Amino acid sequence: ADHHAARTARPAPGSALALTAQVSTPAAVTAGAPFSYVVTLRNPTNQPVALSPCPGYEQVLNTESGAQATQRRLNCAGAGDSVPAHGEVQFEMRARAPEGLVHDGGVKLSWRLADGPSAGTVIPLR
After folding, report:
1. Which H or E element spans position 5?
2. How much is the pTM?
């Protein structure tokens, strides 16, 4: 069997894997302080993607001293329970920057939708 072909297969229309994710973060965060960021889920397909049952997500904050992983559920009702065809929905996320961060390291934020796309970025410290 050619396993490579399976990996490059296009996701089924209407599945969360058809979505793309993007994170918009503040320009900088303060160690130990809360911050919020926005996750945009875009649907490039001709078919809406149902967010029901509402999927969970994982948020990981990585620093020199380790990783903090949090699993939560999306606020799907706020998004109308689906991502429209050729549309997007945004979710505001809240997190707390870890204490004792090293100034030049910043925080690496990774966000992943269960059975769906992921996105990430590095947020500098102020």
Report:
1. helix 3-8
2. 0.86
